[in-house]
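In response to a reviewer's request, we include the raw inputs and outputs for one of the modeled complexes. The two entities were modeled together in a single run.
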Amino acid sequence: VIGTTSPPVRVLRVALLALWLVITLFPLYWILVTSFKEPGSIAAFPLRYLPETWSLANYVSLFEKSQFGTYLANSLLVSLTAGAVATLISLLAAYTLARFEFRAKGALLMAFLVTQMIPAFIALGPLYVMMVDLGLVDRLGGLALLYVAMCIPFCTIMLRGFFENVPDALEEAAMVDGCSRLTALFRVIVPVMTPGIMAAFIFNFVNCWNELFLSVTLMNSDQNKTIPTALNGFISSFNIEWGPMAAAAVLTIVPTMVMFALASRWIVEGLTSGAVKG
Amino acid sequence: MAVLDRAPRGSRPNPSRPPAPAPAPGKRQFTVRRGLGLLGFLAPALVFVAIFTYYPLLKGSQMAFQQWNLFDLRNTPFVGLANFRTLLANPTFYTVLEHSVVWVVGSIVPQLLIGFGLALLLRKHFRFRGLYQALVFFPWAVSGFLIGILFRWMFNGEFGVVNDLLRKAGLIDTNIAWLAEPRLAMFSVVVANVWYGVTFFAIMILAALQSVPDELEEAAALDGAGKARTLFFIVIPFIRTTLLLTVLLRVIWVFNFPEIIYGMTGGGPAEQTHIVTSWMINFTSQGDYGLASALGLIVVGVLVLFTTFYLLALKERDAR
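The model returned the following structure tokens for the whole complex.
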């Protein structure tokens, strides 16, 4: 971009950017403030934009009234496992798709892309029956299995984009030195791609962490619920208790937000390259 | 691609054996060993997607033609088009379809415009751009469902911060029951969705903008074109295809995106904020997967039709 910008234009630009930042962060700010208010003051006028006294009462009552600690642990376990397994499986597939030409490749990529566009509800009933048959209903392992499958298509497309940025001379050299392809992949390519792989993993983790409908359908017992399922229970009750609800929302958002912020650069890169290359 | 003119590689090269003959240039060399190697790398992904995505999708499509209720699994006869007939006879179906259009158009147009503006603002490097992007990125880390809950709280009729801010600004005197009145509720869920989706457009458009060669704009500037003219006659035409494809992907995605509505209004009041896919949740939660699947197939049909026309229109304009 050329030319110099005049001061008024610059001021306008900064003002608009600041405005959008405020608009973006406000909902988060508001739930955070709500969660730290004293239970009585949440529904009191005038509304306060900072708590009069900061209080942890909502968090305490959240953990007392529900098994939120268990839900957190469940979500963490399922998302870490499924996210990691999906990343590993996608890594192999993405590598193949990036490095080799074969006849079914176009069709395969298409098959992966299409899964992102069909309403997932069509698959919900058969998946439930399948899980019943496998004895995996209401099991965290069963849920993780489905999450792996859920993550693979997009993760593969994303990682393929990263592989295409790594010159293949790298693993060729390793293979001339006597490495097998698999060894070359993990010894030479993976270390170079670590940021991209971390981004893919975080993306998977966040997707699993946030998934709602599969979990609601499959997890019945309280000790196996993940966070979204628990939140669904909270808002379905006739009278929503907004204090503990806000605390739960904050505890749900913060971990993924930190992860996303750390990897945002690579996630952006992955998303845009994946989409542009199709 | 580079692989085409590369020597075939089975597994590790064995120095004691003579090297494999080089393939004729441009000709694909297929060895069983290499084929199996490929398959080995691809197999886990394929197996997972086949078993846990494609099989249930096909099976689910079949359910659209069955009477299929989760609470009556012994009795699932084929009923032909009965599920589709039931849906078409339901007046809510048409309301919901209409709302889907409002939802998609009302969300995508502002998302595109604001996203474009944001991308233009972010185009030039400034000191905290990386940090800014990471911060503005935050909605993406949150599920649509939870976003719905956050906005449900903010749009609360009694204690909502939206009413409070509007009153402080002197725009309203009495609280508005945003989520209790059908039209206002629809407006509110669309607002939430616009907020949620701007980042996506901004990021895609920013990436596209960065692909515009500087020389192009420099040439335009030399020819005396102002900033606005350069934008409309040089930059936008250059990224048009990316722009239009991003919109297409987004339309499909937003059409299929019930989470915000589910979290914010649950489709209420009186089913008046449902779009097709959030309405589908009603059927699945009643266990009626026959009806849900039929509705799902209708969605697929609508989206396929839309995509076809959209792409055809795009092609036609390009040909002209």
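As requested, we also summarize the result in words. The CA atoms of residues 208 and 239 of chain B lie 6 Å apart. Chain B touches chain A through 100 residues (CB under 8 Å).
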